[in-house]
Amino acid sequence: MHVLCYGAGAIGSLVGGRLSQSRAASVTVLARMPHVAAIRTWGLVLETPRGRLVCKDLDSIVALDDLASPPDLVILTVKSYQTAGALADLRELLRRGVPVVSLQNGVGSEEAIAAVAGADHVVAGSITISASVLRPGVVRQQTEGGGIALAPVGDAPAAEVAAVFRRAGFPTAVHRDYRAMKWSKLLLNQLANASCAILDLPPAAIVRDPRLFRIERDAFHEAVRVMRGLGARPVSLPGYPVPLVERLMAAPAWLGRRLLARGIARGRGQKMPSLWEDIEKGRGRSEVEALNGAVAREGARLGIPTPTNAMLADVLLAIASGARDRGELRRKPDALVALRRRCGAT
Fold first, then answer.
1. Residue spans of beta strands (DSSP E) within the chain
2. Are the CB atoms for 55 and 46 separated by under 8 Å?
3. Counting beta carbons within 10 angstroms of the beta carbon of residue 330, is it exposed (0 to 12), middle (13 to 18) or buried (19 or more)?
4. 104 and 37 share a domain?
5. Which of 27, 53, 54, 159 could form a disulfide with 46 if both were Cys (CB 3.0 to 4.6 A apart)?
6. Which of 176, 192, 210 is the last residue of a domain?
């Protein structure tokens, strides 16, 4: 099988490198030129908790015109707000019926892909392994636990794709309901994420502050209510019993804070969350649109109040676009707590 990892940053490179190293598939990664140049020169370097791997048997390209042969599977790992551009680029491949696995954060990408490729060619995916690009050509896997969860959007071959990931050593689970799987990952992704980006504080600082933890709890409970309004319930993901997390968030705050702090440290290592990276790198966009923003949009459609998620999404999008001075809230928890009150969140 020939796999194309489209948008190979940290996750695309990690997955592509391990697929190639294990010979589970022949791999081509499509990435930015500095990353590709380094891979072509030294190979793709993966720093994992179990050791250092150098992957030299994979191809690397910067444009689809450079593909040596058509792929049998596309793994899409671009940011959620880059999905439309990726689909325009991949349109011809998708018209030929090449299946797509979306390993993206948030919700909404699968429906956009299905509108172009057809639902029967789309596999929704969630990865619960943390990784980061240290420098071009070098990716660090931050956590040893976790794995990949998959679910077909239509009648896509999720079981066949799962077999490929398992051959590469990824713990892989297949779910029937892709919405339940993706919304369960959203619940994990939104924890200590938007607030970290707004305040420029690490997750541990958010969880230590009872006022900030209350914001996290409120946003989490709003998302669960919206999820249930959609007819979905939390499901466990590799390494992460999300239904248990839901119960912990309903427990007394002191207990939830203590246990959540441990879970965040285990799940992310020392890595700052993804929404912080969007702001720190000045991308002008934020995946909060597909996380807290998606909760707010679906809540409005269903008539379910989501004031905390709406506030977090609006503030972070304004900071990302430059419409709001980051300094107004940077490292100022009191200011965020006051803003939350003014926005009507109880």
1. 2-6, 26-30, 44-48, 51-55, 59-61, 73-76, 100-103, 122-127, 131-135, 138-141, 148-152, 172-174
2. yes
3. middle
4. yes
5. 53
6. 176
Q: How remote is the C-alpha of 86 from its chain's centroid?
A: 16
The DSSP H or E segment spanning 220 is: helix 210-229
21 and 43 Cβ atoms separated by less than 8 Å: no
By residue range, what is the domain housing residue 116?
2-176
Which strand (E) or helix (H) includes residue 190?
none
- Please measure the distance between the N-terminal and C-terminal CA atoms of the chain and give it in whole angstroms: 53
Tokens of 153: 């959007």
Q: What is the pLDDT of residues 277-328, one digit of tens each?
A: 999 999 999 999 999 999 999 999 999 999 999 999 999 999 999 999 999 9
pTM over 0.85? The answer is: yes
- In what side-by-side order are the strands of the sheet with 138-141? 51-55, 44-48, 138-141, 131-135
The DSSP call for residue 58 is S
Give residues with Cβ within 8 angstroms of 159, minimum separation 6.
Answer: 174
Retrieve residue 170's tokens: 């990824």
CA distance 108 to 104: 10
**How far is residue 55's CA from residue 71's CA, in Å, rounded to a whole number?**
19
Domains identified in the chain, total number: 2
58/344 Cα distance (integer angstroms): 52
Distances (CA, A) of 42 to 36, 38, 68, 249, 287: 10, 6, 20, 46, 32
- Nearest CA to 253 out of 213, 220, 201, 286 is that of 213
